[in-house]
Each structure stands twice: as structure tokens, then as C-alpha cells.
Amino acid sequence: MYAQIQSQLLSLIQAGTLRSGDLLPSEEQLSRIFGISRMTARQALQTLKNQGFAARNKGQGTYVSQPPVEQDISHLCGFTAEMRALGIKASSRVLHSGLMASPENVSAVFGLPAGSRVFHLQRVRLADGIPLAIEEIHLPAQRFPGIERLSFAHRSLYETMRERYQIRLSRVDEILEARAATKREAELLNIPIRSALLVISRTLWSVDGTAVETAHSAYRGDRYRAAVRIPAAAQ
User: Fold this and answer.
1) CB 66 within 8 A of CB 223
2) Which residues pair with 159 in a beta bridge?
3) Of 39, 42, 160, 226, which has fewest CB within 10 angstroms of its CB?
4) What residues does CATH 1.10.10.10 cover in the chain?
5) How many CA atoms lie within 13 A of 143 on its CB side?
């Protein structure tokens, strides 16, 4: 019974009858409407919350929320292209863009002398206007002359690398870890301090075998899911 009620509520959400921010019926209201126990009503609402379609504010009830963005990280695809494929408008708020002396760990990845010039880009990535991630990127400046003069508020970095600089990408190495948001991250993402973050550290390689990008992206744990699709190994 609770699954049937959850399905009816989900249909109303997907049809747009119930929109993000709308208050859902309470357990007591669902009990009265469907003639069920409050425990069954609670299960229906909890299932919606587990699926990311509902959230609860203490003392205010359960309301419709936007489901988490799910990104397939087994394929090399930039944030802009991935959001476009999901029908979501991607945008960015640039925090810093320009040349700087390379940090030691970045120099090691690129095989450059310490202090070499690199392009540094830090952005808040937004999905339909909602802050989703903080992204920090370094590129070797010698491979991307003049990139510091470009605006990346709405421009795709990967499309720029491919079309303007003819960089052909071969693979990406990624490390995923979970941690709590710092005060600064919480402010930028509009979430409580110490909220869960999914942090993805990435190194991007071109076909000539050299690293062309290092990046660290901190995603909101309540709004983002990383999906990996792995084919079954041959027996």
C-alpha cells in the first residue's frame, strides 16, 4: 500500500502538479485520505525522501525537492555537456581565473619545474541556478596560450580545449572521497557547515601521454550522485 501511495505522489511530482518547494500531505492527512495507518503513510513519504524527491524541515513538514543530479563518471564528459544531456541549464560563478606560479603538487603532475606558470580556474558550478559544486582547475600555461583572457562563466572548458587548442583527450584518472564541508564551502554551496561532500580529484591526459589538467571538484552530497557502469568481465 505504501508503494502505491508513493507512486501516486511521484506521478504528481513528475507531471508538475506538485513542484519543488510544495508541501506534501502530512502522515495524518495521508492516513485520512487513503484510510491507512500513519506508519504506512510514513513509509510512503520516507521512500520519496530516499529517492531524493522529498525532504523534511523539522516543524514544517515534508516538501517536494529536486532529485539529485546523477552523472555517469565512467565516461569522459564535461559538466556543461553532462547537464545539457540531462536537460539542465549549466552555469558558473567564477571565483578566480588567471595565471599563477604552479604549486609543487601541480608541477609534479605536469612534469614542470617548481614555480612554472599555470592557468588557475576556480568556479562554483550551478545546475538550473542551484549551486552544485566547487571546482578548482590547473592547466599548464604553455599548452594553452592566451587562455587567461577567456571568460569561463558560461564557456565549457573541455569544448575550449578541443576546439581552440586542438587537445585530443585519451583518458582521465579520478579519485573519489567523502568529507564534510568547510565553512567557506558551505557558504558557496548554500548548505550547512559539515554537510556531506563528494570530492572528485581528476587528472586529464592527452593522446601524446602528457597531463593537461588537474582538477578537484567538491559536490553537494544531497544534490549529486556519481554513477559508474562497469561491463561484466568475460568468464
Assistant:
1) yes
2) none
3) 39
4) 2-64
5) 21
